[in-house]
Design a protein that fits this description.
The chain is built from twelve helices and twelve strands. It is an alpha/beta fold. The strands form two sheets. Strands 1-7-6-5-4-2-3 form a seven-stranded mixed β-sheet, sandwiched between helices. Helix 3 packs across helix 8, helix 4 crosses helix 7 and helix 11 packs across helix 12. The longest helix has 20 residues. The mean pLDDT is 95.
């Protein structure tokens, strides 16, 4: 069955029945005999889809985890109340006091702050690797256990060669965890490239409507057991209403991403020719860092792009002047967004101001006209 068709049928039960699975809210699951109670407790140790207690999820969350597991081609999927919760829980599952980890130097700022401000207190250290690293041996320490990658990287969207990196990690016995929010399992499948865990902030494209908070970690092979154990140990779960909303959003994932991709590509190509713009970052551009690798390993781009303005243009005035692009910290919904990022602000490691744009589902020509008008009013006094 083709992937587009699967999106429509994920979680559907026997007919006659609802097109979407029902929202099942529960804490206590009732039994009429001790025998069935014990049976459920026994089966849940090897089957994550047994409904046994609300903290382990109801059928609504189980339907979503099964869908994401199939989408990412993994062996198990665990759900969390946010993307950050998925990242922090996954790292905590594999790292112990005294361990060392590697992290791509342009990783999501919340991932960096968790490693710097929390894991360091737990006696876990980390080092940065460049986005184009493939041989990990020069960065290895005797206590290195894990590599956190993100491809494309945050804000400049540089593409890592995960195939080569994972080959090196396997030789060095390292676990590879990928932040796959950009690709969201549809455009990109890090587990198929050799990664052990793929994390998605479903707050973005999976739900797609800017109204749901969700994180997911999909694992493969031996990585599933420690992730499962730590998720249960720390009581992480996703509420059934959020699971339902994300499942509903999945139905249009391919259609939405096609539109986001076409619009962002059109905007990026237009911006490259503008004299007000110094640089554009977008994996669909031929001169983008890692463009050929992305074309080899992924099936397309999403709605994100970043740019830096030429000298004499104020990025904050530009963003404030935009009408169709609202200012917002997230992305991946139906709406277009813009954010001005100052150098070394904690959100970007670049030494010059950036503007991040998310191309929503509005008509591309209207968005370009909005950008054109804002550029004309963004000169410094």
């Amino acid at each position: 069955m083709r992937r587009d068709t699967k999106l429509i049928h994920y979680g559907r039960g026997p007919l006659p029945g609802p097109a979407n699975p029902s929202i099942e809210r529960a804490s206590t699951i009732l039994h009429d005999t001790m025998s069935t109670f014990r049976d459920a407790k026994e089966r849940r140790e090897t089957d994550d889809h047994v409904v046994s207690y609300g903290r382990r999820g109801t059928s609504t969350a189980h339907a979503l985890s099964a869908a994401l597991c199939d989408l990412e081609q993994g062996d198990a999927c665990y759900l969390y109340p946010s993307g950050v919760a998925a990242i922090t829980t996954t790292l905590s599952a594999f790292l112990r006091p005294g361990d060392h980890m590697l992290m791509v130097d342009e990783a999501f700022h919340a991932s960096q702050s968790f490693c710097r401000d929390y894991l360091a207190q737990m006696d876990v250290s980390f080092s940065s690797i460049p986005w184009d690293a493939t041989d990990l041996s020069p960065y290895l320490k005797p206590n290195t256990k894990l590599v956190l990658v993100e491809s494309p990287t945050s804000l400049t969207f540089k593409v890592m060669d995960l195939r080569a990196l994972c080959d090196s990690a396997k030789d060095l016995n390292l676990t590879v965890v990928a932040d796959n929010t950009y690709g969201s399992g549809w455009l990109y499948q890090p587990l198929c490239l050799g990664c052990d865990v793929s994390i998605i902030s479903g707050t973005k494209y999976l739900s797609g409507h800017a109204d749901t908070m969700i994180g997911a970690a999909v694992s493969k092979g031996d990585a599933s057991a420690p992730l499962r154990a730590h998720t249960l140990r720390t009581g992480q779960l996703l509420a059934p209403d959020e699971a339902y909303a994300c499942l509903r959003g999945l139905r249009t994932l391919s259609l939405r991403l096609d539109r986001h991709a076409a619009t962002s590509q059109q905007i990026a190509t237009w911006l490259v020719e503008r004299p007000e713009v110094k640089r554009v970052w977008h994996p669909g551009l031929a001169d983008h860092p890692g463009h050929n690798i992305w074309a080899r390993d992924a099936s397309g781009v999403n709605g994100l792009l970043s740019l830096s303005l030429a000298d004499g243009f104020d990025p904050e005035v530009f963003v404030d002047t935009l009408k169709l692009f609202a200012i917002g910290a997230s992305w991946g919904g139906f709406e277009s967004l813009a954010l001005a990022l100052q150098p070394k602000s904690g959100l970007t490691s670049q030494d010059h101001p950036q503007v991040r744009l998310h191309a929503g589902l509005e008509h591309a020509d209207d968005l370009i006209e909005d950008i054109r008008a804002a550029l004309s009013k963004s000169t410094l006094e």
